[in-house]
What does this fold into?
Amino acid sequence: MIEKEVSPANQRILLAITALISLIWLMQGCALTSSQKPKVKTCLMCHKEETQKFRQQEFKHASVAEEKCQECHLSHGVANKLVLVKEKAELCYSCHPQKIEEFQKGQVHYPVGKGDCARCHDPHGASNSNFLVKTGQDLCFDCHIEVKEAFSVPNVHSPAKAGKCDACHASHTSELPDLLKAAGNDLCINCHSHQEAQFQASHSQYSVEGTTCLECHNPHGSGGKGLFRKSIHQPVAEGECSSCHEPPSADEAVALTAEAPESCYTCHDEEEYQKKNSHQPVRQGKCLSCHQAHASKYKPLLTESSETLCLQCHQDDAEEFEKRFVHSPVQEGNCIGCHEPHSTDNKSLLVKTDADMCFSCHTDEAQKYSQGTIHAPIDVGQCLVCHDPHASDTKGNVVAQGSELCYSCHSEEEEQLQKKDIHQPFGNGNCLLCHDSHATAHEYLLKDSEAKVCYSCHSNQARKLDAPYVHGPINKGQCNICHSGHASDLKYQLIKTESDLCFRCHEDSQTALSRAYTHTPFRTGTCSQCHEPHGSADKLFLNAKGDRLCYNCHVKEETQFKQGQIHAPVAEGDCRVCHAGHASENRQILLKPESDLCADCHDYQDAGFQKTHLQILTKTTRCTGCHAPHAAQQEGLFHQYAHSPYKQGECGVCHEMP
It folds into this structure.
């Protein structure tokens, strides 16, 4: 097919035709009748289940009743979710603008403050008035779980029992605490008239004007009659108001028969409050600084919880209680678990003395800390030498961290840190890796037997217990016979130099130091250069077998002694056939004088021996004058260089022959 180029004139004609067709098509679209236009569905045509539900509700939101969904929802939103035209409360306030200012005054109900109207109200409709999602207290209990538990008592306040929380509390805001509708007694007298005979009889004919109803009564419920608080003063519970007050007929009916503490001591034994150490309010007779006179929700008639009450005076302790580790009674606000609130003969108002106080809770420790080796503070019952009774930033409530605590008493141990070789746990201040801080069945408060404590880290030494020969102290688990547990100026924390340690038991070896010739390691006191101090396969605890031990030092000789003609003991690797290990009166620390030593193997009387030596050899002859004692290149172990007559066997040139 041959392609032809379209001329510019033809291109203009084609564009004009295309534009005309498009215009005609658009005009036809605009001319569609209303019946031909797309139909718009309402929300309820699709959301049929919701429609049915909304229509059944007794109370319907106006927008729902009028099917005006778009007043609150965007018509499209996003997939599977209807988007509100405004956020939360802002949407509600667009119809209820008068609530904006109202809901910003005084005490605000939590959901209101968060703008979460739907927490209590259904935005579409409900079977309950005001579109509440639940009725009465069931709605309140969704959040106020602790109040629900209070309603499980035998006697419940009538409005509460009827589920009418709003009889006393406002739903949204209030100028009063707890969203109350009226202040103090004004709320109560809406139902309970002071003038009623029944009311006056229940209060023993005393006027209650000027008093606070909630001082005695719980507004929700109580375990006893009269909705009395948990803790009730006995005269109040028995209706004997005249025990403390003048009779109702008196000019001042509610006046006390005597001021505190005298009025209190008419029932409470005064001697119990006059012991050696008394709480300051007790000394000052200010009983009512801590106690309510009639009833309280805190036992025993406290004005506040124990913790809150104590900290009202002991404010300095409040900051201390913020530390990382807090003693359980302090954490629970149970100050009187340890302290007597009134009077005692013990210091710091403790209910018991010293360790007995601690052991009243720590009963398991009481038994454990009474046997074996006991830490001195524990033994004398002074737990507080190490522990803070309230709180500490250190685990275990100790008063200082790690070794810092130990050194407060063991100052002589701290001085050992200046020594050259320090046991790692001691240097790191980790005393408790080896020691128990309270009591143990072992010496020095060690956590286990001495050896087991050591082997818990030094497992390589523990394996030496399986060696055929084990050093006596190691076999007995007495590591400290040689080593310091803390520090030393000597390597390996030895308590003395190697030789001094060894000579304490090996006295015979110490005597050998006086001999004419001594082995260098023996003379310099480095016993471990040859001996393994813990355990060995060798009976003498040698570090290596045979000549391998000697060659560790005599490196040059090892090469020389393995060439040419080799003396039999050398070839067999048994240096000890000729040499002593420690010291000798003979040169080269030989076991015997040279000729005597050689005679142990070579019989001088043997005819062949005599013939070889031309009948002139005697026991005083120095064998090494002719023979190398270890190895030589010449047969017969002869030295490399020899006197010419001797070399030619002409001994008579110098010696008189027999």
